[in-house]
Automatic annotation (TrEMBL), chains A, B, C, D:
Ranges spanned by the short sequence motif Important for interaction with partner proteins, renumbered to the chain: 165-170
Key words of the record: DNA damage, DNA recombination, DNA repair, DNA replication, DNA-binding
GO molecular function: single-stranded DNA binding
InterPro entries with a match to the protein in the record: NA-bd_OB-fold, Primosome_PriB/ssb, ssDNA-bd
GO biological process terms, semicolon-separated: DNA recombination; DNA repair; DNA replication
Protein's name in the database: Single-stranded DNA-binding protein
Role: Plays an important role in DNA replication, recombination and repair. Binds to ssDNA and to an array of partner proteins to recruit them to their sites of action during DNA metabolism.
DNA sequence: TTTT
DNA sequence: TTTT
């Protein structure tokens, strides 16, 4: 009922393989993916461009797990917002091991982007524009009390920049 | 039921004045504050340190509006996560005007930090550590299906770094 | 040389029109775009899906301004990270007016995504995969001292999940 | 020189112990801390408030490592922005192990907040207000080309809300 | 109008 | 003025 602290992860990258979905005893879906984020930079010494790919373990829960399992494919470009969580587990020899994952549940978000996924099952791949709509649906419960405009007038419409820009002293 | 896009603002700064809370016809609270974020940098030409304060209009809705109205004071240091929204309105002469605000509702967060608020009503000021707990409570509905551990074993408990670190080849 | 506060905006959306680039007296580029972020939700009363588009004014400076001016087109899907800034200006009647923008400079980022831009000059449109590489180049100066691996072994290479997963007690 | 992807972590929490700083052969500082972020929620079944603390390994590099080593103490409340990185290493038995850390270097940020640190060395603890100024200094190189106002007039000054608010049709 |  |  309370919280102290912020634990937020924002990733935008490509999915490393087809997602794996399983179901908990209570029927809730859990989907695992690996996600690659790449960045590159010029080496100060050599002047060579260096590239580095970081791999992340992402776990979706609930409604987002279903959506991720259905729409994400190997190669999909995706935006993800979640939180860090480190799980403790025991390996075969009984030793404690730790795995850090990005948990994406109702407090998070997933947005499928325009990436050309190399689907394992391309024949059944949905039209990509379907995914983002579906994907976002889980955010709905997050803003029930939001001040959404229902009036005919749209308070947040764009200013009339054509006439307006003349006034802007850039 | 769907979403396409990300619209997120993260601010950490100081409140410019006591919050103003009002109530909508439906009983929901709305609280307005102004928030200052400062940054400084060394001028490349002069070598002088420059400072700049940016002021933001933040609007809380719902439960967070109540918490903000109760715990924030002039001077409070606060972390806020919300979304950008530009409202259109008419000034006295009937001209269209636009105001951009950071909306913080159930999809957002507020964390009161350790700042020494100069409360308008210091006598009634709650112990400051109470605020963050209360403040965060509104996030609860965001993670109802989250994979919270309810097992006796805490998967995410602090690793035993003392023994653990020995293995880490820093 | 110092900073107190956080002022961060993260947007992922579609560009509303071809970017407009101009040059400051010192030769630095400045590029303006408008960016739409959409979200939708189900109305609690009516059960109807509501949609809302928020428009943002984004201003790129420096190297990112050049990249944005070259690669962004009307319709481009783009990820942007910047900071909020409100400018004061005077309209024709001499009245003070304020415009809030998202400033994206060296402290920010831009990532062109997979969107199918409807370029004004499609014939000269670069292969879309070229853009993200170029776009990110401005981040280079941000991490010169970063602990990038230059050793033959890549510490952060993809774990061998195939063999590795066997140990993970999901 | 380029980048494709976003890898960003934002944490706000309390430091688990005094920071440990060491120096690389090239003289650069590296500082390690553990950081706790807590959140709590009401259990749907029991109605009981549950609390959970997540621990993170944070590694600072360069100038920020020096600042972190000097100003952070056990218990310090701190805001951190960095990126995820998983290191591979071998334990005593030669087995591959992985550790995920939040790397905070020039592309990141650190802000010491108002927390009452329980310093291991309270006698030598600097006045807390000194830290944030120092801490932020490392961000300077990130925005050298930023459009900072050098004009006498401050473009980003606060609107005169007193007279202004009357016009706002809330 | 905040804060350092 | 975008996008689905």
């Amino acid at each position: 009922m309370a919280s102290r602290g912020v634990n937020k992860v924002i990733l935008l990258g490509n999915v490393g393989g087809d997602p794996e979905t399983r179901y908990l005893p209570n029927g809730n879906a859990v989907t695992n993916i690996t996600l690659a984020t790449s960045d590159s930079w010029k080496d100060k010494q050599t002047g060579q461009v260096q590239e580095r790919t970081e791999w992340h373990r992402v776990v979706f829960f609930g409604k987002l797990a279903e959506i991720a399992g259905e729409y994400l494919k190997k190669g999909s470009q995706v935006y993800v917002e979640g939180r860090l969580q480190t799980r403790k587990w025991q390996d075969q020899s009984g030793q404690d091991r730790y795995t850090t994952e990005i948990v994406v549940d109702m407090g998070g978000t997933m947005q499928l982007l325009g990436g050309r996924a190399t689907g394992a099952h391309p024949e059944e791949s949905a039209p990509r524009q379907a995914a983002p709509r579906a994907a976002a649906s889980v955010r709905e419960p997050q803003a029930p009390s939001a001040p959404r405009p229902t009036q005919p007038a749209q308070p947040s419409a764009m200013p009339d920049y054509d006439s307006f820009d003349d006034d802007i002293p850039f």
